[in-house]
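Give me structure tokens for this 377-residue protein.
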Amino acid sequence: MNEVYINKIAKFLPNAPVDNDGMEAFLGKINDRESKARRIVLRNNGIKTRYYALTEAGEPTHTNAELTAEAIKALFDEEFKATDMELLSCGTSSPDYLMPSHAVMVHGVLGNRNVEVNSAAGNCCAGMNALKFGFLSVKSGNTKNAVCTGSERMSSWMVADHFNKEVENLKQLEQQPIIGFNKDFLRWMLSDGAGAFLLENEPKGEMSLRIDWMEGYSYAHELEVCMYAGGDKTEDGSLKSFSDYTSEEWLSKSIFAVKQDTKLLDKHILAKGVDSMKLAMEKNGISPSDIDYLLPHVSSQYFVDGLYQGFAEAGIEIERSKWYMNLRDVGNVGAGSVYLVLEELFRSGKLRKGQHIMLCVPESARFTYAYAYLTVC
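Here you go.
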């Protein structure tokens, strides 16, 4: 089995950063009213700026495939050309289409050569699942290299126009024409962008990150769906697919809107995160002292203190000085977040050979968690 190294990291963030006051100009006002949830959500999530693949008029500037391709292109140079790529593995929760898959659409934009492709679906863990596919391919010798990506283009899902039919339907039913908090909440949480890693079977350049191990855990066997799109919850908590609704209901109920059960999120996301982190550390025989940098993907600053406390109570306390985050400036880019924060740390000048980095990614969709342990070489 080969060793696997991240030799290059690149990113692409579209357009200029958007501050909190400018968000509604891009996303629009539903029913011409300012959102009641916006200030509450922004106060708790700690995000100050984010990026949108939109004009200020709400028109798209990039597809998700284009965002991803731009990040990948930044990996190419004389030492690693576009035609050298053997495997393309892409993860996202906001593909441009139900089909074809995200990875083949990215490959189409690149137009480089015949390669193996893999698309990882899901939510925030999709980026890590894409990474694991590439990791295992290079480790097994199936390929000598792999380009792995995480990306999102959620802004186009959040523009006010997508909710107008639901608001009109509520008016006709003589109900309050305000969309539910489970939908409005996420309009102020999610951002656009893409990151890309080049994995190879030997270290190259001044610095590489060796992937020592990766682990994943799902709690879907015991917990119901928390974050979803393309369906809606029934009274018993089960999920009903868009294909079982009428086309009229797709609009009147905003079936394709991204929704989150915030009560479930608050109840389980930290507890299962602590549990899975401890399992991963025990399985691989490491302790908090073996971690020099912890890169936790958190959707909101609201969860940081609780996660730290949970680790401490579980006997795996990791000093806050070791936590490295960029949520405030980049926002929550879902499957792309872990790529973007590692890219920032990689070029920060802080890393020293022999240090260890833990990537920690939770996914609230049905409570899935992914981890990676890296050594600086």
